[in-house]
Amino acid sequence: MKEWEKQLNNFVNTLEELEKFINITDDEREAILTLNTKWGTTPYFASLMDADDPNCPIRRQVIPSLGENKNVYGLDNYLVWKENRDTEESRPDCIARQYKDRVAFTVIDVCGIYCRHCFRKELVVDQDLSLRFDVDEGIKWIKEHDEVRDVLVTGGDPFLLSDEKIAYIISELRKIEHVEMIRFGTRTPIVMPQRITEDLMNVLKGYHRVPIWINTQCNHPKEITEETAKAVYKLMECGINVGNQAVLLKGINDDIDTFKRLHQKLLSIRIKPYYVFYCEPAPGIDHFRTPVEKGAELIRDALRGHTTGLAQPMYVVATNIGKIPLMPNYYFVDKDDENYTLMNHRGERTQLPNIKE
Ligand SMILES: *Cc1c(COP(=O)(O)O)cnc(C)c1O
Ligand code: SF4
User: Fold this and answer.
1) CA of 65 to the centre of ligand 1 (A)
2) Contacts with 306 (C-beta within 8 Å, 6 or more apart), sequence order
3) Residue nearest ligand 1's atom 1 by CA
């Protein structure tokens, strides 16, 4: 058995297993025993948890919380609304669509961590929503839609599929002439870096007209280890760029210092910050949500001008009508007939001539 298969076989999803890693609090125990929810992660990721700090950023992403019982702002049937599953266009369950030229193609509903903040919680974690994920049905639909040039393969976590299944998806998509790029969304580089094996590299590598891109999800600098750094390097050896899609999480990464260190550390292991997402209004995750402005303020106060330009993600709110970027508009101070007045991260001002159309 390969190391990654052992990681999945020894999944930490019982109190007994969890106790080997941390001192479980009464609240955590109660949440685990009373919430009817799927939870757990790999022993590798569990070993990064702080044994004695219930506020450990990894622990909070892994272990159910009683906060999940409270739901003031979350929307019922969130995913059906968010992924436009109720529209007149007929699509297989595995295809979610918000844009003309690209779709999200869900191929699996299992993960290497059942993130407590997951926006697909109803499907992946709580399993109140059941959908059919038929890869061949999805491929057939994509074949019939020649306006789709970018396919985002997602889940769950598509890298929990076998090498053969991943190879099959890639080769079928590459046969479609109008498909110009394939993207995988996978948390494995963070929660199970052992997944990036020589065999998987053989599936991914090699020049082809249709490139593969990967986005992972890392929310806190503590999630980044030497193993992750090496896994990312191996993916790059396969000609794949790795980006990050972080989720803004209250008490985990919503302070200036953590937010800056996260983005700097990602670059130090060759991951390009792509998006920071506002924590979506899925049900039962109110306790992770910040005010909407928070992400834009953090980019202003922690990143833009304060550190390397490459470390800048775009802050977006993912909605049913697509992702909407939010920028703090403080950079723009004023405009008159002659000049624009702009401001930088230190509050200094400068002017630019107002050139009319
Ligand atoms: C996020 C998403 C995409 C990809 O959006 P990009 O901004 O291109 O990364 C495509 N389709 C759906 C349904 C999505 O949710
Ligand atoms: S890995 Fe992704 S799909 Fe799976 S639980 Fe976490 S956020 Fe949700």
Assistant:
1) 29
2) 260, 345
3) 323
